[in-house]
Amino acid sequence: MKIDAYLVNAFTFNGTGGNPAGVVLHADHLSDDEKLTIAKAVGYSETAFVAQDDEADFAVSFFTTTDEVDFCGHATLATFSTLYQKGMISEGQYVQRTKAGLLAVTIAPDGEIVMEQKLPEYLGELGYEVVSELIGIDAAVLASTGFPVEVISTGLDDIIVPVPHGYLDQIRVNEELLSDFCRKHQLVGLHAFELCEKDSDLTASCRNFAPLFGIPEESATGSASGALACYLSKHLGGNHSNRFIFEQGRAMNCTSRMTAAVELKEHDIIKVMVGGYAHEIGQQQIFL
Question: Which residues, other chains included, contact 206 with Cβ-Cβ below 8 Å and sequence gap of 6+?
């Protein structure tokens, strides 16, 4: 059986950078084992598989090279950009069924994809000493930010780690320790960020690590961008906008850009959205 996978860079900036994802359309007949085999052959951090659904517009499942995950932001963006570019959908709003729930996706007239994510779950704080061992930054340096290290999920459980400006590129992850920690606590990975200077058009620069799922570092992470938007909305206080622009992938020479926004009702977040652009970079044929 021949399978066609589209190779798509998601969260590109001016047509460059981004995080590659595989996209397989018409995947209704594929088993989970076959999807994992395809994802391994594609070799990207995630490959998305698109199928029909009785209620939603599409059912989308996401596989890393090692396992299935409930949701993937950059692969969602790659999926709906592909559907749009192939003329299978037009601008407007759609609903995808994922293991993280039914989530809306909007196609803007200029091709920007904006995806809704799950409302945030705040799953507790971690000590600076614990995180220091994982990323090679002294605990006192981490504490100097004045912000907590917090586990937040808007679809995937990630450790959100603030570092002082200038320290992001100094992170040296202990992949074995981080993998063991994530396995023990049922987490996906670690998303570190440094706030940008006030005169920058960027809110924060970020790095994401998920070695437990075969991802030493990722150049753009949609799910964690949603979680970070919720974190910043919670911890920056009222003296800020609820719209954010994040940069990621700089340390990999693959700078990507994500927009994120939260909607508030009184003090509660009632909607989380992450957006960006994607570009097809090729196709791959896999034989099962």
Answer: 168, 191, 192, 193, 221, 224, 225, 228, 246, 247, 248
Look up the pTM and report it.
0.88
Which pLDDT score, from 0 to 100, does residue 265 have? 87
Q: Which of 46, 150, 194, 218 is catalytic?
A: 46
Mean pLDDT of 138-154: 97
What is the distance between the alpha carbons of residues 237 and 27, in angstroms, rounded to a whole number? 44
Q: CA end-to-end span of the chain, whole Å?
A: 5
Q: Fill in the DSSP letter of residue 283.
A: E
Q: Which CA distances in Å does 131 have to 6, 160, 190?
A: 37, 10, 9
- The one-letter code for the residue type at 78 is A
Distance CA 34, CA 13 (A): 33
Q: Which residues pair with 12 in a beta bridge?
A: 277
Between CA 19 and CA 215 the distance in angstroms is 12
Dist. CA 275–CA 73, nearest whole Å: 9
Buried b (16+ CB within 10 A) or exposed e, 184-201: eeebbbbbbbbbbeeeee
- Residue indicated by tokens 């039914």: 102
Q: How far is CA 85 from the centre of its chain?
A: 21
* Strand-strand pairing, 92-98 and 68-69: unpaired
| Number of other CB atoms surrounding residue 14 within 10 Å | 8
From the list 106, 116, 213, 115, the residue with the least C-alpha distance to 157 is 213
pLDDT at 240 over 70: no
The residue ranking higher by pLDDT, 236 or 32, is 32
For 277, the token pair is 């652009």
129 is catalytic: no
Contact of 276 with 19, CB cutoff 8 Å: no
Helix-then-strand count for the chain, H and E = 6, 17
